[in-house]
């Protein structure tokens, strides 16, 4: 099958930020040499240990200066915590710097709930704010004129860019996004957990990132809703952890994945909090073991089969970036040929 | 004294990708010349002139291609930023670049026409600036931020940067990655002597040199107000020496960066002819804004009004020495060598002349 192969990291690591980011840039350079089509980074705010990158676009600008071909993705930017017009500017500049290589994945920030207060935002409003910000972002990236008169006293908040632009007074030129970010509007990705929102993403031409929730139930429904509503791409985001055998890898991953068990119970995906590690790894769609084990389980993954992109998450909380690089090598050399084979 | 450069990132009619790629090449050339710092201005929603709305994204790219040159914003329009997001972006670029970031901040006078697009009123620029500078400084210093309900998954114990900043309570949120030293690399551009004094009291650097600020009557009082408000009063003449000892990080309490248009050429006539089309563009912009006074000037009068130093290197050395608000105030001399219609090769050549023929005569030594 023709499958776009990418990788993702949430940027974990023990070293100080300068050394960690240096290794992260080198990871992208190595991934490009290994033939990966894309590399994606997650945005996490105010995290000292796990999820150490609050600013994916500057990081990807550094990567852009060192690479020529690999697509540069965010999976995801927490849109409700961004000023959408500033985000549009940053994305447009990065897209120009990288020769049109940006893929902009967006999320509502459920996992960042604890950080909304620091930004003066109410986490309860995150979906409303996501919708408003997405509209502003999309309009800006589509070259719509922006308001040229200050908001009146009754206007709400800092999302004023969403207002309909007042008629430009005489001699005033309409303001549009600069650089224009042309083409970026078709490289936006959603990451919703609701089928109706997945369908809306597809109708708007946005891709869908599928990572959270059991593949056979939750993700299959999302994928079907997205697929039925349009022809935009879908990416299966999958933990991929090679090792000598499945038992060894499961034991290594156990402490890392245990922290996600309560959320899986709360969502109703796990029956109770006493399920074992292999069962939890299954619910989290993690593919692990020897390269042959991984090929077999990826080929059996119903969402991988109906996706245009496979994005391998190669770093768990205790995985170093050096180990992540080794995972990329194994994936490129020993797993990808088997997955792509007809 | 340190030597830098500043560009407003022009490029009429050209693709942004080409403009940015050439600007990175300019940073590479400046780095090789041993220039201490390169500064980019932020402009929002501009087509031909002022083409960079995202200086930190750009500087992250420039950082990858350079080794020593410090990377400055001159300036970031603070009222249009979320101060905590700005702190995060700055902290990431500072880490990526090996602590080479210099963060210049302004109220956005030249961007007042963009405020409405961000849902803001330019009449509020100063109060927004003050409020956001307080928040930015606090975040960079590692002060605790308001915390919401812990989600349990990622809050966790103090991380690998714990030696620099460790929240004792795992529920406490502080800026990540930590960038405490960056709080000592903030610079502020202002046109008010009272505010210049506040800049000194806050320990920030002062950026001077807006082309429309007359050196004698406007800039010099700003520099004097800054110096007289420093905790340990500095005297003109000692400033440069002190700053020269402040180390590569550019820190230290006495920081004054002074921007000047500097256009060396074979002789004055050549420089003037080269500048004339750019000045015409500039006057046309003034005419559209309703600045009929500037719009009516001829080339020579415009050069004088904008305090442009141009001509043979020897003439420039002489005119820089005679500039009433440049030496001895400047700890960082920041020439502008780009104009509205110049090419990369011309810009590199001008910077090379400044770095090899002009600045050494004024006491500058290249990074070696």
Summarize the helices and strands and which ones pair or pack.
The complex is a heterodimer of chains A (342) and B (368).
Chain A: E1 4-9, H1 17-33, E2 38-41, H2 56-66, E3 71-78, H3 84-97, E4 102-107, H4 126-141, E5 188-190, H5 195-203, E6 207-210, H6 215-229, E7 234-242, H7 246-258, H8 261-266, H9 277-283, E8 287-289, H10 291-300, H11 302-305, E9 309-313, H12 321-340
Parallel strand pairs in A: 1-2, 1-9, 2-3, 3-4, 4-5, 5-6, 6-7, 7-8, 7-9
Chain B: E1 2-7, H1 16-32, E2 37-40, H2 55-65, E3 70-77, H3 83-96, E4 101-106, H4 125-141, E5 186-189, H5 193-202, E6 205-208, H6 215-229, H7 239-244, E7 256-264, H8 268-289, H9 292-295, H10 299-305, E8 309-311, H11 313-322, E9 332-336, H12 344-358
Parallel strand pairs in B: 1-2, 1-9, 2-3, 3-4, 4-5, 5-6, 6-7, 7-8, 7-9
User: Structural class, judged by helices and strands of chain A?
Assistant: alpha/beta
> Which regions of chain A have little confidence, pLDDT < 50, spanning 5+ residues?
156-171
Question: Low-confidence stretches of chain B at least 5 residues in length (pLDDT < 50)?
Answer: 151-167, 233-251
- Provide the spatial order of strands within the biggest beta sheet of chain B: 1-2-3-4-5-6-7-9
């Amino acid at each position: 099958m023709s499958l776009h192969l990418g990788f993702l990291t949430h940027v974990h690591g023990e070293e100080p930020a300068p050394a960690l980011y240096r290794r992260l840039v080198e990871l992208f350079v190595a991934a490009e040499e290994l033939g990966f089509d894309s590399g994606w980074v997650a945005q996490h705010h105010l995290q000292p240990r796990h999820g150490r990158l609050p600013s994916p676009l500057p990081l990807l600008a550094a990567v852009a200066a060192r690479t020529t071909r690999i697509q540069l993705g965010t999976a995801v930017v927490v849109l409700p915590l961004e000023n959408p017009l500033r985000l549009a500017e940053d994305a447009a500049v990065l897209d120009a710097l990288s020769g049109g290589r940006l893929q902009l994945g967006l999320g509502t920030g459920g996992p960042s709930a604890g950080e909304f207060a620091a930004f003066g935002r109410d986490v309860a409003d995150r979906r409303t704010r996501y919708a408003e910000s997405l509209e502003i972002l999309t309009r800006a990236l589509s070259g719509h004129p922006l308001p040229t008169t200050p908001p009146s006293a009754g206007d709400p908040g800092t999302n004023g860019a969403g207002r309909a632009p007042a008629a430009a007074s005489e001699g005033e030129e309409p303001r549009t996004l600069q650089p224009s970010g042309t083409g970026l509007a078709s490289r936006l990705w959603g990451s919703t957990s609701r089928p109706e929102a997945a369908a809306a993403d597809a109708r708007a031409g946005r891709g869908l990132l599928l990572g959270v929730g059991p593949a056979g139930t939750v993700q299959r429904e999302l994928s079907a809703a997205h697929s039925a509503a349009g022809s935009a791409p879908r990416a299966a985001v999958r933990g991929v952890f090679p090792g000598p055998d499945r038992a060894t890898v499961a034991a290594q991953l156990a402490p890392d994945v245990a922290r996600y068990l309560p959320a899986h119970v709360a969502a109703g995906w796990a029956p109770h909090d006493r399920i074992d590690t292999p069962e939890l790894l299954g619910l989290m769609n993690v593919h692990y073991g020897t390269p042959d084990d991984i090929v077999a389980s990826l080929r059996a993954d119903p969402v991988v089969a109906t996706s245009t992109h496979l994005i391998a998450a190669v770093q768990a909380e205790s995985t170093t970036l050096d180990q992540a690089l080794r995972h990329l090598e194994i994936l490129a050399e020993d797993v990808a040929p088997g997955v792509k084979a007809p | 004294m340190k030597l830098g450069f500043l560009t407003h990132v022009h490029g009429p009619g050209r693709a942004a990708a080409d403009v940015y790629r050439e600007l990175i090449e300019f940073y590479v050339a400046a780095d090789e010349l041993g220039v201490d710092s390169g500064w980019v201005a932020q402009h929002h929603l501009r087509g031909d002139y002022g083409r960079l709305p995202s200086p930190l994204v750009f500087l992250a790219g420039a950082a990858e291609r350079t080794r020593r040159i410090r990377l400055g914003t001159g300036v970031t329009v603070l009222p249009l930023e979320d101060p905590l997001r700005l702190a995060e972006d700055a902290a990431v670029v500072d880490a990526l670049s090996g602590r080479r970031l210099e963060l210049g901040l302004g109220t956005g006078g030249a961007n007042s026409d963009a405020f409405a697009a961000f849902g803001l009123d330019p009449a509020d620029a100063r109060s927004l600036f003050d409020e956001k500078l307080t928040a930015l400084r606090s975040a960079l210093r590692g002060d605790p931020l308001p915390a919401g309900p812990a989600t349990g998954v990622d809050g966790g114990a103090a991380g690998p940067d714990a030696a620099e900043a460790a929240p004792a309570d795992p529920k406490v949120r502080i800026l990540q990655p930590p960038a405490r030293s960056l709080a000592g690399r903030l610079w502020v551009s202002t046109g008010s002597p009272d505010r210049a004094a506040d800049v000194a009291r806050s320990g920030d650097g002062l950026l001077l040199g807006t082309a429309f600020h007359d050196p004698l009557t406007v800039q010099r009082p700003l520099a004097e107000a800054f110096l007289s408000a420093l905790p340990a009063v500095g005297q003109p003449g000692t400033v440069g020496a002190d700053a020269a000892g402040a180390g590569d990080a550019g820190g230290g309490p006495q920081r004054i960066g002074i921007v000047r248009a500097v256009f060396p050429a074979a002789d004055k006539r050549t420089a003037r002819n080269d500048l004339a089309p750019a000045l015409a563009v500039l006057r046309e912009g003034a005419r559209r804004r309703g600045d009929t006074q500037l719009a009516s000037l001829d080339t020579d009068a415009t050069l004088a009004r904008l305090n442009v130093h141009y001509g043979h290197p020897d003439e420039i050395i002489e005119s820089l020495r005679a500039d009433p608000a440049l030496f001895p105030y400047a700890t960082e001399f920041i020439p502008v060598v780009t104009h509205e219609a110049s090419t990369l090769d011309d810009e590199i050549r001008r910077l090379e002349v400044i770095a090899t023929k002009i600045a050494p005569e004024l006491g500058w030594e290249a990074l070696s």
